[in-house]
Amino acid sequence: MTTLAELQRALENPNARKMLNLIAASEGVKHGYNTLFGNQQFNNLGAHPNIRKEFTQTDGRKNYTTAAGRYQFLNDTWAGLRNQYGFRDFSPQNQDLGAIALISGRGALNDVLKGDYRSAILKLGPEWASLPSSTYKQGKRSWDFVNKQLGRDVGGARQTQQSKQQFSPNFIDLKSVGIQQQNKEYQPQMVDLEAVGIGNSKQNNSFQPELIDLKSVGIG
């Protein structure tokens, strides 16, 4: 368990402050530490307000939340932090410390402190529904939003694009590589792969399918 003193030291790290600002921006809070779910404002920071609000999930189902504060703590979550660290109120300082404690609890604090925000975000999706790594049935931010907030490309958007490129099927114009005669109308043709230098010349007479690396023969 991260101690209170360790949480306080972590708050002095500018990378931790950046992460907290990102979480608050992702949650879309308009009243900072005094924000209820749905961007209503409350004034008493003596304790978590524990006000139950209804919302509709992205799958159309109704749900309820007690999220409040700059980092939208659920009442049960805050109760656990209060018992663990002895927080006496819902003050801005304690909210900051509580958020750092949740980051640490997900094993992401070291990532945050060294500025590896992408690794941290991938771990924090189960904690904050607004992060792009979240699997909750709620609206979430894009990696482009994250990059804009941090003022740098943390790799999420680029990684997604590279994955799409890597796993997208390639359609090859066989005519362009000399494997098909020009026809006025498209007709499927049987191609002698051995004749165009593809395949095993020593294969037996019975048909056996082969896996061919098209790049190795100059295709694709």
Q: How does this model look, in words?
A:
By secondary structure, this protein is mainly α. It folds into 2 domains: 4-164, Lysozyme; 169-220, no CATH class. Helix content is 36%, strand content 5%. It has 8 helices and 4 strands. A two-stranded antiparallel ribbon has the order 1-2. A hairpin with a 5-residue loop joins strand 3 (53-56) and strand 4. Helix 1 (4-11) crosses helix 4 (92-105) and helix 2 (14-27) crosses helix 7. The longest helix has 14 residues, at 14-27. It is globular and about 70 Å long. The two termini are 53 Å apart. InterPro entries: Lysozyme-like_dom_sf (IPR023346). It comes from Acinetobacter silvestris. This is Lysozyme.
Q: How would you concisely characterize the structure shown here?
A:
The chain is mainly alpha-helical and 220 residues long.
| Helical content band | 25-40%
User: H/E series, N to C?
Assistant: HHEEEEHHHHHH
What is the total tally of β strands?
4
Characterize the quaternary organization of these chains: single chain
Organism: Acinetobacter silvestris
InterPro entries: Lysozyme-like_dom_sf
Protein name: Lysozyme
